[in-house]
């Protein structure tokens, strides 16, 4: 029997291989066990129709370690830094306050019901930048001309005129007057001829209070409303207002077209004074929004500016002896030879010749006869100069001397 001798080196290699197998075996067993756990059990469908395809297992979500960003070393080259901070919103500067009203500002008195109250707010916005105009609103939302026992405008207006001394009186009333009218002698139902006759008498009485006090009167008509019967009544009342006020040389302002469409129907949303679509009326179809109040005042603003003149403009301030600025700011020695003259009023009618029309005075006599005079008197124009396009005369032929 022959016994082979195994070298020590070979035994070392075999031992190392066996040790590696023993170490790797648990890892393979763990992977096989995990795969068996992830694999779904076979169903009856798999047994009858064959082995199913292996199910795809998505890879695990392995998060990468976050590396800390270390600051780079500065080099000699140019370095551009980017600001990654969120920009903060800049504070909007507040709007400058409106200019203060002058002590001699002209007052506009607005009276009436709740519609007149909105008109007064719109006029305040319209003349906010005009220091020479002050809007005084004295409106009673539930008032009218029918229930004079609740609020008597004809008896209240004289006291307001004497107290405020307005330059213009603006009246808008009638939205609450669609009811029975009671007089000392009888009661009249609404929409009857007797009712309109008695109501016109009260309109005339209120308008006469302003005209007798020699204050310009502006009567503003009613707008359209959502209730159809209320809109129809407003049309009839506007006709009555116009007829009664114009008889007393008052001015009637019609605002109807601003709150209806092209077919004359009531609208809630329409264009504002700048032509932009906005909501003009409230949810009830009777009240007004802020743009609606401003649009309501837009129609009255033109008449008020025309009656007040230059005081209604925010850029024009009449100069007089009380607010005349210092036009000469020189040392006394240099100001001796200067003659100061008062400022010229651009609204003075005497500057353009008063009542004398252009051409009223005869033109100064002249000895030079114009082509027009020669054509009228002699019937012939002077000869045109040579070389002009209308010069058609032939040159005179010259005879040669022998």
UniProtKB/TrEMBL annotation:
UniProt feature, compositional bias: Polar residues: 77-89
Keyword Signal: yes
Endpoints of the signal sequence: 1-30
Keywords on record: Signal
Domain of life: Bacteria
Region (Disordered): 61-99, 358-402
Record flagged with keyword Lipid biosynthesis: no
CDD domains: SGNH_hydrolase_peri2 (cd01829)
Entry protein name: DUF459 domain-containing protein
Species the sequence originates in: Rhizobium wuzhouense
């Amino acid at each position: 029997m022959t016994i082979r001798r195994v070298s020590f080196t070979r035994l070392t290699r075999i031992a190392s291989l066996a040790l590696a197998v023993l170490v790797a075996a648990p890892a393979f067993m763990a992977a096989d066990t995990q795969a068996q756990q992830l694999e779904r059990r076979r169903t009856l469908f798999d047994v009858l129709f064959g082995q199913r395809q292996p199910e795809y297992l998505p890879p695990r979500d392995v998060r990468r370690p976050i590396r800390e960003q270390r600051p780079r070393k500065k080099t000699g080259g140019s370095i551009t830094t980017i600001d990654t901070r969120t920009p903060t919103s800049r504070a909007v500067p507040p709007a400058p306050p409106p200019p203060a009203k002058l002590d001699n500002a002209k007052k506009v008195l607005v009276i009436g019901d709740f519609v007149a109250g909105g008109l007064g707010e719109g006029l305040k916005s319209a003349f906010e930048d005009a220091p020479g105009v002050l809007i005084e609103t004295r409106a009673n939302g539930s008032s009218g001309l029918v229930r004079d026992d609740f609020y008597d405008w004809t008896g209240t207006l004289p006291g307001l005129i004497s107290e405020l001394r307005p330059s213009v009186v603006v009246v808008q009333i009638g939205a609450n007057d669609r009811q029975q009218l009671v007089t000392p002698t009888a009661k009249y139902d609404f929409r009857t001829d007797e009712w309109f006759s008695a109501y016109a008498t009260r309109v005339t009485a209120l308008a006469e209070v302003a005209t007798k006090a020699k204050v310009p009167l502006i009567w503003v008509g009613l707008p359209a409303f959502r209730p159809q019967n209320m809109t129809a009544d407003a049309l009839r009342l506007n006709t009555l207002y116009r007829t009664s006020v114009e008889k007393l040389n008052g001015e009637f302002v019609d605002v109807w077209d601003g709150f209806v469409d092209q077919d004359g129907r009531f609208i809630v949303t329409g264009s504002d004074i700048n032509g932009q679509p906005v909501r003009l009326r409230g949810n009830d179809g009777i009240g007004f929004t802020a743009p609606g109040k401003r649009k309501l005042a837009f129609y009255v603003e033109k008449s008020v500016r025309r009656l007040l003149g230059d005081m209604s403009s925010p850029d024009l301030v009449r100069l007089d002896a009380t607010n005349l600025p210092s036009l000469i700011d020189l040392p006394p020695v240099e100001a001796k030879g200067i003659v100061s003259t008062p400022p010229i009023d651009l609204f003075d009618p005497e500057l353009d010749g008063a009542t004398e029309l252009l051409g009223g005075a005869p033109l100064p006599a002249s000895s030079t006869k114009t082509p027009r005079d020669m054509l009228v008197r002699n019937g012939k124009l002077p000869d045109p100069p040579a070389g002009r396009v209308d010069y058609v005369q032939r040159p005179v032929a010259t005879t040669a001397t022998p």
